[in-house]
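Summary of Year 1 activities. Much of the first year was spent building the evaluation harness for sequence design. The harness presents a backbone, in tokenized form, and records the residue chosen at every position. We chose the following record to illustrate the format because it has been used consistently in internal testing since the harness was completed.
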């Protein structure tokens, strides 16, 4: 049985978009985190079995019956209020590579998560099977303006970056409210015209600044790629996440819906 995980807005990719695409491919079973996520899929025309992995308040059980949803049982008292239709296990070491971890994981169960979206959790992760994962998401924004930063001048909140030379910088229309971790302040980068543009200064809620000094011909309206390909360069979701000290699952699921391509 294949039951794709489309929780957390399909790991930030758009649950309805992904659900419909999978259903068109013949997928009939899905799992989500909450009854609200399940209802969104039902109302979008997803007709197969939908398993709610998380907790549903008993007063919401009527929603389970109304939308023909399968609810995970939390404990015995919870089970007495529901009809048991099957058993499943949370494979807590499914990403493990040691023999003990492999032995702990059932081999006949397929519940694709982050791999469904063509990504790995970490750039150091490996797959047991030889698969060619192809990312289905890119994260891009536009340059708002380009400015000169003179030697000794600082940029951004807290003046955490001071120019040691004459520089050309740009403000880009994306920030931590859109899913760019503040942790990437002064150490992340974007791809612009096929070149790496380092993030300088603190990342703001709606904007961030990048160094364009080594990238000629840049102008307002140019595209900045944070996840995806640009020329001969590429930033994968796992590389982006690793730089921020986390995994791609967290980064992708926190993206604002307006930035998904």
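For this record, the design step produced the sequence shown next.
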């Amino acid at each position: 049985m294949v039951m794709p995980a489309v929780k957390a807005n399909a790991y930030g990719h758009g649950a309805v978009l992904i659900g419909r695409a999978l259903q068109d491919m013949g997928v009939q079973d899905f799992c989500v985190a909450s009854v609200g996520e399940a209802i969104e899929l039902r109302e979008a025309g997803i007709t197969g079995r939908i398993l709610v992995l998380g907790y549903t308040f008993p007063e919401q059980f009527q929603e389970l019956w109304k939308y023909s949803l399968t609810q995970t049982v939390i404990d015995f008292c919870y089970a007495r209020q529901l009809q048991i239709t099957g058993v499943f296990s949370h494979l807590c070491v499914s990403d493990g590579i040691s023999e003990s971890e492999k032995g702990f994981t059932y081999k006949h169960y397929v519940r694709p998560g982050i791999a469904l979206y063509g990504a790995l959790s970490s750039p150091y992760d490996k797959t047991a099977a030889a698969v060619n994962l192809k990312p289905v998401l890119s994260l891009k924004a536009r340059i708002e303006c380009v400015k000169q930063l003179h030697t000794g001048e600082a940029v951004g909140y807290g003046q955490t970056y001071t120019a040691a030379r004459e520089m050309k910088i740009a403000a880009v229309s994306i920030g931590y409210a859109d899913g760019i971790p503040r942790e990437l302040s002064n150490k992340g980068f974007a791809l612009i015209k096929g070149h790496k543009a380092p993030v300088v200064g603190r990342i703001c809620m709606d904007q961030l600044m990048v160094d364009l000094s080594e990238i000629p011909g840049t102008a307002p309206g140019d595209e900045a790629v944070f996840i995806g390909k640009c020329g001969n360069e590429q930033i994968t979701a796992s590389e982006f996440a690793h730089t921020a000290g986390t995994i791609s699952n967290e980064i992708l699921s926190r993206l604002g819906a307006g930035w998904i391509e």
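Residues 229 and 249 are 19 Å apart (CA to CA). Quantitative recovery figures across the full test set are reported in Table 2.
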